[in-house]
Structure formats: structure tokens, C-alpha cells
Amino acid sequence: MSKQNTINKLAVFCASSDGNDQQIYNTAYTVGKRMAEEDIQLVYGGSKLGLMGQVARGVMDHGGNATGVIPDFLKTKEVVHNGLDELITTQDMHERKLTMNELSDAFITLPGGFGTFEELFEIVTWAQLGLHRKPIGLLNINGFYDDLIHMLNKMTSKGLLKQDNLDILLVSDDFDDLLKQMRNFEPKPVPKWMNKNQT
């Protein structure tokens, strides 16, 4: 039996807006609650707004630990969450993502907009290129990502995305199931042409 991945710190990507789907909104809080119950520290974008704020509240309301990572230009009283255990300020968005990657053992994406998609695809691309080997989960709450999942499968069927790379992204509509998948995730070997140590 393979060794499980230890997930002590989980980076969460999601919207800074509330949206209009109550199930998504409520589930974001539940994700934070379950993280606290599992003694998993939250690493996220540092906002008190939207789904981001919901996840953070779920963590902190249940005795969990939350670290925010926010670029300096977004660090205003209207946006930043002042009740976090730690708030890290970065120079820009790129440094923010690098810092979240360095701090985290795994990543999970909840519903969101352009910024959430950008974070998800960059971290998946880094994994595809062998820059990290951490689990990446997509929480498909209330079918939010059905169309994206269909598109990813279409990319694979058209020969533009390898199945091994598609398999990097773990998908579930249930947080506990997704967490189990992430703990059991076994990354594929990095292709030889990507191995810097190859002679």
C-alpha cells in the first residue's frame, strides 16, 4: 500500500465575490470548517470578501489556522481580512502565487472567476512541467465546473492534452472525497525530456 500524502497546509483558490448560488456560498464555509476539523491550515488570498472570506470564516470559527497572502496593491481595509493568524504581503500577483506554492502541501479550487481560473491553470501547468508534485483538487460544487471538465476531456480527445496531464487534476463534488483523493495521489514520473538531471 502506497504512503499517503501529508496535507498540513492547503491552498484554496476561489472567488472574492459571493456569487448568487447559495449552495456554493454555504459549501465554501463548510470547506473551511472541515479543514479546521482535519487540522489543515488554510493558505489563501487573504480577503474577507466573497467565497474567500467564507472559507476563512469556516476555518477560524472552528479553531483552525489561516494564513493570507495578498499583494500590496490589494491590501486595503475594504479587502483584507484582519483576523488571520498570519498575513503575508507580496509585491505582486506572481510573487503571491509563488509564496502560496511554497507554503502549501496541496491545492484546491472552488468556484470563481478569471483570477481563480488563472491560479488553477498556472498551478496545474507547473505540475505538468514537473516544477512541483503536489496534489491539485477541483471541487465541482453544484455542477459549477461541468462545462470546464467537458472542455478538458475534449482537449484530450483532440490530442491537445495528454491523459496523464489531465489526470493531474483531481475532481469531486464532495470535499471529503476530494481530500481522500489528494492524500492518495501518486504523481506520474516527470518525462525524461523535462528532467534537468538527464545527460
Automatic annotation (TrEMBL):
Keyword NAD in record: no
EC numbers, comma separated: 3.2.2.n1
Keyword Membrane annotated: no
Xref: SUPFAM superfamilies: MCP/YpsA-like (SSF102405)
Catalysed reactions listed for this entry: AMP + H2O = D-ribose 5-phosphate + adenine
Keywords, alphabetical: Cytokinin biosynthesis, Hydrolase
Signal peptide location: none
InterPro entries the UniProt entry points to: LOG (IPR005269), LOG_fam (IPR031100)
Alphabetized NCBIfam families for the sequence: Rossman fold protein, TIGR00730 family
The family this protein is said to belong to: Belongs to the LOG family.
Protein name (database record): Cytokinin riboside 5'-monophosphate phosphoribohydrolase
